[in-house]
From TrEMBL:
Keywords: DNA-binding, Phosphoprotein. GO terms for biological process: phosphorelay signal transduction system; regulation of DNA-templated transcription. The modification 4-aspartylphosphate is found at D54. Residues 3-119 form the Response regulatory domain. Residues 134-199 form the HTH luxR-type domain. It comes from the Bacteria. This is Two component transcriptional regulator, LuxR family. GO terms for molecular function: DNA binding. PROSITE patterns: HTH_LUXR_1, HTH_LUXR_2, RESPONSE_REGULATORY.
Length: 201
């Protein structure tokens, strides 16, 4: 029996996923969670074989949950289930230790098959996204540049970002300028748009 944890913030979607998976031969939903911290806690409590994680979980996003589970519960394999079809996010998820990446447009049969593949030690990735990811190229941003762009996307100015990251305002401006240049963007807004579209932030 494959024990599964389902982490999804939308109650109706989470209940539907749990019902679909519980109805599959050899799969049992051992726990559910509505946010990132709860998903981590539930995984450590129930010890599932597979954690099905939404990327946009509140409190702690699904990619961060996958990274922490890789360290704290390596026997639990993670399958990202998301509406976000961005190749850069796929790469980030796999780098964080996720064994699968499926879109929410998948059929119940495809979801169950992905859970079984991941539980057996394989990798299950949406084929169209995998192809786009191979064409995309590497993320040119450093972790700090990506963080600065992420905070800028939320409306923070250079002074706020500097305070948040414990950096000088000049350093923040240099990182913004570097990110804009690396992405061949005209403005900061353009750089944020490019990075978001590719799933780099």
């Amino acid at each position: 029996m494959i024990k599964v944890l389902v982490a999804e913030d939308m109650h109706v979607v989470r209940a539907g996923l749990a019902e679909i998976l519980d109805g599959q031969l050899g799969i049992e939903v051992a726990g559910q969670a509505a946010d990132g911290p709860s998903a981590l806690e539930a995984a450590l409590r129930h010890g599932p074989d597979v954690a099905v994680l939404d990327i946009d979980l509140p409190g702690l996003d699904g990619i961060s949950v996958a990274a922490r589970l890789r360290e704290r519960l390596p026997a639990c394999r993670c399958l990202m289930l998301t509406a976000l079809d961005r190749p850069g996010l796929l790469r980030r998820a796999l780098d964080a230790g996720a064994a699968g990446y499926l879109l929410k447009t998948a059929t119940p049969g495809e979801l169950a098959s992905a859970v079984r593949t991941v539980a057996a030690g394989g990798r299950a990735v949406d084929p169209r996204l995998a192809e786009q990811s191979s064409e995309l190229g590497e993320n040119p941003l450093t972790a700090r540049e990506a963080e600065v762009l992420r905070l800028s996307a939320g409306g923070a100015g250079a002074r706020e970002i500097a305070a948040e990251l414990f950096l000088g305002v000049g350093t923040v401006r240099n990182r913004i300028s570097s990110a804009v240049g690396k992405l061949h963007a005209r403005t900061l807004v353009d750089a944020v748009r490019i990075a978001e579209r590719n799933g780099w932030i």
